[in-house]
Every structure is written in structure tokens, then in C-alpha cells.
Write a structure and sequence with these properties.
The chain has 761 residues and is α+β, with helices and mostly antiparallel strands. The protein has three domains: 205 residues, Aldehyde Oxidoreductase, domain 4, CATH 3.30.365; 157 residues, Aldehyde oxidase/xanthine dehydrogenase, molybdopterin binding domain (Aldehyde Oxidoreductase, domain 4, 2-Layer Sandwich), CATH 3.30.365; 357 residues, Aldehyde Oxidoreductase, domain 4. The two termini are 47 Å apart.
Length: 761
């Protein structure tokens, strides 16, 4: 992907070159954003444009003669209720009756623009254009209603699905049935539309049940794994010994031929080169495909990473952060070298994390059929605009010959951003000439995961003769998901020595004011060659801030300063830490605010013997879209065994306007529990080039019995809304580690934190 697409991908509903059309088509009122020039003739009426679909809208909605409003959603639904949040934005500005609002999650089509659901971007990037779309729709409805009621449009108002004038009203449905619509808003007019102030909103920020809850509770919601097509066969992949470089040398299917329903095996040749050394097994039932694949004996010439271990990758990471000739500069504030030379003392630390898996409840899957030269792919996917071209390349067809039919996701967490799991399905369907449903078993899913890479982060802090902190150097090494899957998103480092995966550096560009601050980033090529490093919920922030917020406590301890007060002293909001409109207004001062609230909320907590309370802050997901969060972890450590119990987590959250409170709360709850799980339990170390813990008998996410009490407080704010899908993960692990230090004096520096590590220390 070219660098010019970065901005378009993050702000994929750009109105800078779009006009808004309102027109009647087939008895309904359609509203859409469309280009100013190109496929649409400047003289075309909205009705002609909409009817002929000669445009590329990014968001649009319709109102039928019954007054029912349907809003199309180009975002993936994976439990976060994104459709409900976006629908409430539109419906609030429109003045719709919420009981008549529905949503449709759309399939791929160029008219939807750039399709991606990740980075906690969805509400952030669509709040403004969807608000403007609703406002434009409201104006068009008022104008049409005023003509019907024969009254001044400027004296009309909208409420609960009707236009009101004095003691008269007319419903949206009647307006659509009786009115005439032929309205175009220029980009300048759209930009100037008055949006409702917070005090006038009736839906945004107010409690509501998600629109998709009935379907998810009555069984009618269709997930990728639910798809059934006429005449389809089932397939299961056989995962090669290494992600890259393995070649099949022999296949013995004599035992598989005895399996009922076995249809044969296929050596998959992938022109996109994402699959190397793959075999697919087909059968007339899912169970038959599983049995036949287990019975098949495949011999390989293995790839070069077949002997690589977790320790090998971590050792390479430690070498990379030590060798200052490696990597490139990400931040170079002040003059750390001079500060280091003048320093009276320094402290150093190395923090590490181990390989972890996404482990979504629904294993990855795809169902595929070809009809009249068009390939239909039914699956749950987070980044269709990245995945569809790879599918097309594997099939050796143009992009317009592939349609991805969006299904509900039974968990995404970043794994379904690049849908490489659809490639073996389409290649198998092409080989067989029939529709194919490919479902990965749990073990298959784990071995083909895009794990979070093992990471190594080193720190050095320097102090003057008065023991005042004067600067910090920070180096980080890991496998980079963006390098593997979307290298066009990687800008150059400050020193032009390398390109940088921004998703694997975010968090190092923190909001603390430091006179001297240097960050060097390095790609761990051994990790890159062994696994396909993945975007896992909170991405780089999850391992970078683990080290950062733990080390900030180490600096505070060396400075003999309270950890909260030390943080507050650096959250002054000066210079680059002041933030900017619209996404980070207030900057570091908003972080200071949530931390001060946390300080007051927890100051009187009574701690029992062997208990401590640690604090950490975070500003995930990125500096260009921060959610301000402060976390306190109340922890107990059993002295004899080292067993860690997280008793309570308290989180203060400032994410601007909270569009859908129930969804926001669920997002923060889920991310905090995910963060606890990563802190204490999850790992799948690399053994012989592969992840080692493949199922729940050995891979151990947080169990119900270990769930801590959660206390979550949202700061009331009218600032621009930002994302909440991932930021809650980030501060959990360091808060727990800082509490452990208070209790035991032991500084743990590896994730996950284990009882054995505490005892050994």
C-alpha cells in the first residue's frame, strides 16, 4: 500500500472532495456522499445519480415510507456493537425515532471506500461525517415538510421521527411518501452544518441496548462459521512445520482413503506466496475432513526456522537493543548523550514479553464459491481492503472479481485484520471446482495464528548530582506486523536509517515531558522470519507501555518520589505534550486529570497484609487518537508460594464524548480483563519454529475464578470521541507489577508474571 493511503485508511470517510446527495428512489429517501467529479456528472440530479448508482459513497442511509431508517455500516461487528454506536450518531442528528432504526453490515464494494475495522478507529474516524450526514438529512426533511405543511422551514424542528411546526407535525414516513427530494450539499455546505451541542443530544451518550443483541441471543446472527452453501464440500488445511520456506516432498493418503466421505487432497500453489508448503484435505462432512487430515501423512523439506526457539528470538532481541548501530531513531528530544555524560548516576532495565495468541472463540474460517466468474468469499474480516487484493492475487483474478460477504466475527482482536485464512479456502475451491467450507480446528487456528511477537525493551535513566532525573533512553525490538502485512504504512525513522512500524512503536512516544528523551526502534528479523507477527489487541502499546510504566516507577523509586506525584510532575502539557484539535485537546493535562481523580479515589483504600496498590497510566491507542486512562491495581502476593491475586482494578477513563455508554463500558471491561490475562497467564513459547501451546489444556487465558473486581469511571467530556477497543489493555500489566514491587520489593520484568519468578527473585 502506498504511503499516500495512510491518511485515507485512518480517515476513510473524507468529505474534502465529496458532496452529499438526497433523493427519492423507488419510494424511499436515499442519502449518500459522492465524489464531486468523475463518475458523477456535475449536472446529474441526486435522483439520477442515486438511481443509477454512478457514484462511490462511503456512508449512506435510507428512510422508507413507513419512516423506518436503515443505516449501512462498513465496519466489522465482533462484539463491540459498532453498528449501534454509528447508528446513534446518525439518528441523533437526523432526529429519528430510535425504535425505527436498523443497521446493515455491508459486503465489499468500492462505493464504501477503504474498509478497515481496527486500531480503535471506528467511532473516531466516522463521528464527524456521520453527524454531518444526519444533519444534512434533517435539513432536507425539514425543507420537504415545510412545503407539505406550507410553513417556514426555519420555524420547524425535528423530534422522534417527525418534523414539528407549532401544533402540527408530519412523520418521516409521510414526508418520504408525499415529498419531493432533489437536494445537493457541497463539501463547504456540509462542513458548515450546525451540529447539535451535547445538551441537545437525545441518543448519543444515552443508555441503550445494542441493535444486534436480539440476533445474537435468538440464534439468527450469522457468523462466518455458520455459512452453508448448496453443493459445498468441507476442507481442512494441514499446516506446514514452518510459516515460511517449507516444501511438500511426499503425501501418503492411503489411511485417509479409508475415511468415510474422503474426497482427496490438494497441494496448494499460492501465487500470492502467503502459503508455503500447504496441503488441503476435502471431505463431504466436517468431521470427515478432520479425520482425513489426521490420517494423511505429509513429508516436508522444512524451512530454515525449523529449529528456532523462543529463547533464540529473545536473545536476538537483547542483542539488538544493546547494539546501538541497529534500527533507527523514533524520538530524539534534547540531547541524551550529553545528559548521560554529565550524569552522576544511572539505572538500567530490560523488560520482555513472550509470544501470545489471539485465541478468538470462533476459529478462523471461510466459505467460498465461484459463480459466473465472480468469487464469493463468506467470512468475518476486519480489513477487507487489505485482504481482498491478496485473495484476488492468489486466484490470479482482478480485484473486481472478488466479493467478501461480511459476517459477524466470533472474536477479532486483530487476528482477522489480514484474512490470510481465506486464501487456502479459495485455492481449494478453485482446485475442486465446487463451493468449499474450510474451518480451522483450534490447533490449526493456533498454529496459523499471527501471534504477538516476543519483545525486548531496554531502558536507561540518568540523574544529576542532586538525584534529579534528567533523561531517558529507550530501545525496543520485536517482530513487526505492519512490515509483514502492510509495509506501505511505515514512515522513515528520524535518521532515515529504516522504516518504522508505527503500530509497534506507539506508546514510546508518551506524554511525559522529558528534557532528554531518545527512542531507538529495531525490527527483530529472527522473529519476522519465524512467525507472522500479528496485530494483537493494543498492539505495540501492550508490550511497550508494560516496560515504560514499570520503569517510570523505577525512576520514581530512585528519585525517592511518590510514583503518582512523579508522574504528575512530568504531565505538564507543555510543548509537544499540549495536544491538538480535535483528537488530543488538552494533551498531557488530561492524563494528569485522570491520574488525579484516581489518586483521590484510591487514597483511603485499606490494604491488608501482603497487599499493595500499583499505578500506571496510558494514552492508547496512538498519539493521533489517545484515550486518557489511569489504572490502580490492588494485588495480593502469597509469601510462601508467590501466588499473585489481583483483587481489584480501578480505571479512570477520558475518551471524550461517549457515544454508546453500554458499548464503551463493555469495551473497557473486556480490555481490562484481557490485560490481566496477558499480565499473569498467557504465553505460547516458540518451539522448533512453531507456537507450542495450541489449545486450552496448555494455553491458559484468565479464568472466571481469577476475575478481579472492576471499578470503571468515565470522565464527562464534550471533547471529540476517541477509540476504546484497545486502550484499556495497556496499563494493567505495569500496574500489577508496580503493586508486586510494593509488596515484595521484587521488580518483575517478564510477561507473563509468574509465581515462580517472584519466588526465584
Amino acid at each position: 500500500m502506498a504511503m499516500k493511503n495512510i491518511k485515507d485508511a485512518k480517515n476513510n470517510v473524507s468529505l474534502s472532495r465529496r458532496r452529499f446527495l438526497v433523493g427519492s428512489v423507488s419510494g424511499s429517501l436515499l442519502m449518500a456522499f459522492a465524489p464531486l467529479v468523475g463518475a458523477v456528472g456535475l449536472g446529474d440530479s441526486p435522483q439520477e445519480t442515486l438511481k443509477n448508482k454512478l457514484f462511490s459513497p462511503t456512508v449512506w442511509f435510507e428512510i422508507n415510507p413507513l419512516g423506518e431508517v436503515n443505516i449501512n455500516i462498513a465496519k466489522a461487528e465482533m462484539g463491540q456493537h459498532i453498528g449501534t454506536a454509528l447508528a446513534r450518531v446518525v439518528a441523533d442528528e437526523l432526529g429519528a425515532d430510535w425504535s425505527k432504526v436498523s443497521i446493515t453490515h455491508v459486503d465489499t464494494d468500492p462505493k464504501w471506500g477503504y474498509m478497515v475495522t481496527g486500531g480503535s478507529w471506528s467511532v473516531f474516524q466516522t463521528f464527524k461525517p456521520m453527524s454531518q450526514a444526519g444533519a444534512a438529512g434533517r435539513i432536507a426533511l425539514i425543507e420537504a415538510a415545510a412545503k407539505i405543511l406550507n410553513c417556514p422551514a426555519e420555524q420547524c424542528s425535528v423530534e422522534n421521527g417527525a418534523v414539528l411546526y407549532q401544533d402540527r407535525s408530519i412523520s418521516f414516513g409521510d414526508i418520504v411518501a408525499k415529498g419531493h427530494f432533489n437536494r445537493t450539499f457541497t463539501p463547504e455546505e456540509i462542513s458548515a452544518l450546525p451540529l447539535k451541542p451535547a445538551s441537545k443530544r437525545s441518543l448519543v451518550g444515552k443508555p441503550a441496548l445494542a441493535l444486534d443483541i436480539p440476533a445474537k441471543t435468538n440464534g439468527s446472527a450469522v457468523y462466518g462459521i455458520d455459512i452453508e452453501l448448496a453443493g459445498m464440500v468441507y476442507a481442512r488445511p494441514i499446516i506446514p512445520p514452518t510459516r515460511y520456506g517449507s516444501k511438500v516432498t511426499n503425501v501418503d493418503d492411503s489411511a485417509a482413503q479409508k475415511i468415510k466421505g474422503y474426497l482427496g487432497y490438494y497441494l496448494l500453489q499460492d501465487p500470492s506466496d502467503h502459503l508455503q508448503g500447504w496441503v488441503s484435505v476435502a471431505a463431504d462432512s466436517y468431521y470427515g475432513a478432520i479425520q482425513a487430515a489426521d490420517a494423511l501423512k505429509v513429508s516436508y523439506q522444512v524451512g530454515k526456522t525449523a529449529k528456532v526457539s523462543e529463547q533464540d528470538i529473545l536473545q536476538e532481541g537483547e542483542r539488538l537493543v544493546t547494539d546501538k548501530s541497529e534500527g533507527g531513531l523514533f524520538i530524539d528530544q534534547g540531547d541524551f548523550s550529553a545528559a548521560s555524560t554529565k550524569a552522576d548516576k544511572s539505572i538500567d532495565a530490560v523488560y520482555r514479553t513472550h509470544t501470545v495468541l489471539h485465541f478468538a472463540l470462533e476459529p478462523v474460517n471461510a466459505t467460498v464459491e465461484e459463480k459466473d466468474g465472480l468469487w464469493h468469499v463468506y467470512t468475518g474480516n476486519q480489513w477487507q481492503s487489505l485482504t481482498l487484493p491478496a485473495i484476488a492475487k492468489a486466484l490470479q483474478v482482478t480485484d473486481d472479481k472478488v466479493v467478501m460477504h461480511q459476517q459477524y466475527l466470533g472474536g477479532g482482536f486483530g487476528r482477522r485484520l489480514f484474512g490470510d485464512y481465506a486464501i487456502p479456502a479459495v485455492l481449494t475451491a478453485k482446485a475442486i471446482g465446487k463451493p468449499v467450507k474450510m474451518v480451522f480446528t483450534r490447533e490449526d487456528d493456533s498454529r496459523f495464528d499471527q501471534p504477538r511477537s516476543p519483545s525486548v525493551v531496554s531502558f536507561r535513566a540518568v540523574f544529576d548530582q542532586e538525584n534529579k532525573f534528567t533523561g531517558m533512553e529507550h530501545a525496543l525490538a520485536a517482530g513487526w506486523p505492519t512490515l509483514a502485512m502492510a509495509p506501505g504504512f511505515m514512515p522513515e525513522s528520524l535518521d532515515k536509517k529504516t522504516r518504522v512500524d508505527m503500530f509497534s512503536t506507539s506508546g514510546a512516544d508518551h506524554w511525559y515531558s522529558m528534557d532528554n528523551h531518545r527512542v531507538r526502534v529495531v525490527n527483530n528479523s529472527l522473529a519476522q522470519e519465524t512467525i507472522l507477527p500479528g496485530w494483537l489487541r493494543s498492539v505495540g502499546q501492550g508490550w511497550i507501555v508494560w516496560g515504560l510504566e514499570s520503569f517510570i516507577d523505577e525512576i520514581a523509586h530512585q528519585s525517592k518520589t511518590d510514583p503518582i506525584d512523579f508522574r504528575l510532575s512530568m504531565l505538564d502539557g507543555l510543548g509537544k505534550q499540549a495536544g491538538k484539535a480535535p483528537e488530543s485537546v488538552g494533551g498531557a493535562k488530561r492524563l494528569a486529570n485522570v491520574l488525579n481523580i484516581l489518586k483521590q479515589k484510591t487514597k483511603d483504600v485499606k490494604l491488608a497484609k501482603n497487599e499493595g496498590m500499583g499505578v500506571a497510566i496510558s494514552s492508547g491507542q496512538e498519539r493521533t487518537m489517545p484515550a486518557w486512562m489511569a489504572c490502580a491495581a490492588q494485588v495480593h502476593v502469597e509469601p510462601s508460594s508467590g501466588k499473585i491475586t489481583v483483587k481489584k482494578l480501578t480505571m479512570i477513563v477520558d475518551a471524550g464524548v461517549i457515544v454508546h455508554p453500554d458499548g464503551a463500558l463493555a469495551q473497557v471491561q473486556g480490555s481490562m480483563l484481557w490485560g490481566t490475562s496477558l499480565a499473569l497467564h498467557e504465553q505460547s513459547p516458540i518451539e522448533n519454529g512453531q507456537v507450542s501451546n495450541l489449545n486450552l489444556n496448555s494455553y491458559s487465558p484468565l479464568r472466571m475464578s481469577d476475575v478481579p473486581e472492576l471499578d470503571i469511571e468515565f470522565v464527562e467530556s464534550d471533547e471529540f470521541p476517541v477509540g476504546l477497543g484497545e486502550p484499556g489493555v495497556v496499563s494493567i500489566a505495569p500496574a500489577i507489577a508496580n503493586a508486586i514491587f510494593q509488596i515484595t520489593g521484587v521488580r518483575v520484568r517478564d510477561l507473563p508474571i509468574t509465581a515462580a519468578a517472584i519466588k526465584n527473585a
